[in-house]
């Protein structure tokens, strides 16, 4: 008599499935209802759509240690297909998002049935070129109501328009960990912040809409705020580029002229005007990341002068201060990170480490000294803080040592471990204004993926 899978003891059956790939489980789930009940949670509880060992390779060592022994449900490669690169896994993310979008429109009950099983979700939102002109990819995440960990990297899309995120969606009340990088709409980030009462770890490094080179004239891919395009449509369609609302784009005043040949990536202004709606009762770890202006007077980079949005940079730093002040009582780990911005051609002549050492300590550091350091030097109580880290800030050959020593001495007297790291650079495509394709969506080159 042939034994059936459904008749096996559950412990033995689960042990067998631990050796199977996700593709095998997706086939096995169709065998019977009994098998389906066991297999479906294995597929949907923890979703990790990055290549195997992605986080071990690209995350900072300190960040990995802070995350602890986090289980990563990587999709194993098939035997003989170890050559598969990150593109194959980005296709997995793309297919996953498209499936959820389809179910959101065609069968929302089924989408809810599946998404409520998910406890951790880590993926790249990369729409690529799609036949559908309007996407609603950001609204699917509000359906993952039982999420405890959400890690998203957003890529820029020139191809599609997006339905703006519905900020009235019910908050993710069980969310504990949120890591958001790249091009992600402001409304979605603020929605995540509304889960503040349960959040214990928040890590954000996001970018505003890129501005392409003025050399393209009327054919430029994306114009700066305040730019008048004679061919621009007056349509009132609900879909907007990248999911930004008109009032969001209007936040950028035309007082700052960004109609230049090359405009560096700008930090997204994502902190709400009022933090009263964000109840950060449990936040112990905060990691804040943004692009930073290099010192082009150093080295041989004097011929290249990208335009940086000083207004965006200053407002971002002011918002950092507001957010940190709001969570001081519970903070255990606080990290500030600057990604020093450079053109993609720099990858041919310098490593990330060389670039930061040569061009480090630029105008971005001066603004950090002016707007953030005074808050850190205040005589206030940091009751829970154990670690303060800086990446890409006050580093490089020209960085003044006295400033670092002052910060270190102040917090060491409070029993806080203070560390400064070179960090990673941010490479971008000057013609398009977008960051170069990278593992974390923030333009870091492959040579900067280690613990620097």
TrEMBL record:
Top-level taxonomic group: Eukaryota
Residue span, F-box domain: 2-47
InterPro entries in the cross-refs: F-box-like_dom_sf, F-box_dom
Stretches the record annotates as Disordered: 215-238
Protein name according to UniProt: F-box domain-containing protein
High-level lineage: Eukaryota, Fungi, Dikarya, Ascomycota, Pezizomycotina
């Amino acid at each position: 008599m042939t034994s059936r899978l459904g008749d096996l003891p559950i412990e033995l059956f689960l042990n067998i499935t631990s050796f199977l790939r996700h593709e095998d489980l997706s086939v096995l789930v169709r065998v019977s209802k009994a098998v389906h009940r066991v297999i479906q949670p294995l597929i949907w509880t923890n979703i990790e759509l990055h290549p195997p060992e992605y986080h071990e390779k690209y995350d900072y060592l300190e960040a990995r240690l802070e995350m602890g022994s986090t289980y990563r449900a990587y999709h194993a490669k098939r035997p003989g297909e170890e050559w598969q690169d990150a593109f194959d896994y980005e296709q997995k993310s793309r297919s996953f998002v498209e499936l959820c979008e389809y179910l959101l429109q065609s069968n929302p009950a089924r989408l809810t049935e599946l998404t409520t099983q998910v406890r951790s979700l880590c993926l790249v939102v990369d729409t690529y070129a799609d036949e559908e002109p309007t996407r609603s990819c950001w609204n699917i995440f509000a359906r993952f109501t039982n999420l405890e960990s959400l890690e998203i990297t957003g890529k820029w899309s020139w191809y599609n328009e997006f339905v703006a995120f519905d900020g009235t969606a019910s908050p993710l009340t069980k969310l504990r960990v949120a890591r958001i990088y790249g091009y992600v709409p402001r409304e979605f980030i603020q929605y995540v912040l509304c889960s503040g009462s349960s959040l214990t770890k928040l890590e954000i490094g996001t970018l505003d809409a890129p501005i392409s080179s003025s050399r393209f004239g009327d054919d430029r891919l994306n114009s700066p705020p305040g730019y008048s395009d004679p061919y621009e449509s007056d349509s009132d369609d609900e879909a907007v580029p990248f999911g930004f609302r008109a009032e969001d784009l209007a936040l950028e005043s035309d007082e700052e002229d960004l109609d230049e040949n090359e405009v560096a990536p700008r930090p997204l202004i994502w902190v709400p005007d009022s933090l009263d709606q964000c109840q950060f009762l449990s936040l112990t770890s905060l990691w804040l990341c943004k692009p930073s202006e290099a010192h082009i007077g150093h080295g041989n980079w004097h011929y290249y002068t990208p335009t940086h949005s000083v207004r965006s940079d200053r407002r971002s730093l002011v918002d950092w201060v507001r957010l940190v002040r709001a969570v001081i009582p519970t903070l255990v780990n606080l990290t500030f990170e600057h990604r020093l911005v450079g053109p993609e051609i720099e990858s041919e002549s310098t490593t990330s480490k060389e670039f930061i050492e040569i061009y480090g300590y630029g105008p971005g550091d001066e603004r950090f000294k002016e707007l953030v350091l005074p808050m850190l030097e205040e005589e206030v109580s940091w009751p829970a803080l154990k670690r303060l880290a800086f990446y890409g800030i006050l580093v490089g050959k020209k960085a003044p040592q006295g400033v670092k020593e002052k910060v270190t001495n102040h917090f060491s007297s409070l029993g806080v471990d203070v560390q400064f790291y070179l960090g990673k650079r941010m490479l971008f495509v000057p013609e398009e204004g977008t960051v170069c394709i990278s593992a974390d969506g923030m333009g870091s080159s492959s040579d900067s993926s280690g613990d620097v």
